[in-house]
Design brief:
The chain has 260 residues and is α/β, with parallel strands linked by helices. The protein has helices spanning 30-45, 76-83, 89-95, 111-118, 145-153, 155-164, 170-175, 188-200, 204-217, 222-236, 240-250, and strands at 6-11, 14-19, 51-56, 61-63, 100-104, 107-109, 121-125, 129-131, 168-169, 181-183.
């Protein structure tokens, strides 16, 4: 699989997707978004992949957002035609039944912030900055930012970030619950590797149910979500991994999960 704007590597049951336009601060154009989706589809369908990591090339940016040079020629009809029914990475990441980690190094603005927010967990370097600056170029967030950001940080903070376009530091992002952990840049990869190791020690089948259940909590009324959780909880007992997990606990040994 050959790509122009991303690097894609699968190693030790982990799929690494690196946005690779460092000279453009890993800005997202249609080609890059399409290639990210193609890599995500491959990782989703590969039973050997247990965890997916998204990051950006270099240490200046995870992704500075959309390539603004495209905005000059875009039209309402063109945008609707392009996006309507299209598979976009922001939505697709949430549908993948595997843990997806954003390893954020540097700027995560606009579509970059939205891409990171779509992931299940965000580990950021101390030099990371997050924001939705679209208001400053005459548009609103268009990659789920107005929908996901309020759910993560609350209505008032989300309105502030979207209405002003002002970015926030990694420390502020941690304080308001936008990211999971902030570490020195030179410790970023090691920290992500530790998280990967922990996730790989869990059952892929049960992680799938856990992700489905959390997703449902963000999409439905509480009563519906609780009912869904009960169904998914019951489904755990139909897996081999549940039996193995219980036996391993009782026998005081590490479990040997197969994802079945």
């Amino acid at each position: 699989m050959k790509f122009e704007t991303i690097l894609y590597e699968k190693k030790d049951n982990v799929a690494w997707i690196t946005l690779n336009r460092p000279e453009k601060y890993n800005a997202q154009n249609q080609t890059l978004r399409g290639e990210v989706v193609a890599a995500l589809e491959d990782a989703k369908d590969d039973d050997g992949v247990q965890v997916i990591v998204l990051t950006g090339a270099g240490d200046k940016a995870f992704s500075a957002g959309a390539d603004i040079s495209n905005f000059v020629d875009w039209t309402t009809i063109g945008v609707i035609t392009t996006n309507k029914g299209a598979k976009r990475p922001y939505n697709f990441i949430r549908e993948i039944p595997k843990p997806v980690i954003a390893m954020v190094n540097g700027l995560a603005l606009g579509g970059g912030c939205e891409l990171a927010m779509s992931c299940d967990m965000i580990i950021a370097s101390e030099n990371a900055r997050f924001g939705q600056p679209e208001i400053s170029v005459g548009v609103i967030p268009g990659g789920t930012g107005t929908q996901i950001l309020p759910r993560l940080v609350g209505e008032k903070k989300a309105r502030e970030m979207i209405f002003t376009g002002d970015p926030i530091s990694a420390e502020e992002a941690l304080r308001i619950g936008l990211v999971n952990k902030v570490v020195p840049l030179d410790k970023l990869r090691d920290t992500v590797d530790e998280l990967i190791k922990k996730l790989k020690s869990k059952s892929p089948a049960i992680l799938k149910f856990a992700k489905l259940a959390v997703n449902k909590s963000l999409e439905t009324p509480l009563s519906v979500g609780i009912e869904c959780e009960g169904d998914l909880f019951a489904m755990c007992f139909g897996t081999q991994d549940q039996k193995e997990g219980a036996k391993a606990f009782l026998e005081k040994r590490p479990p040997n999960y197969t994802g079945k």
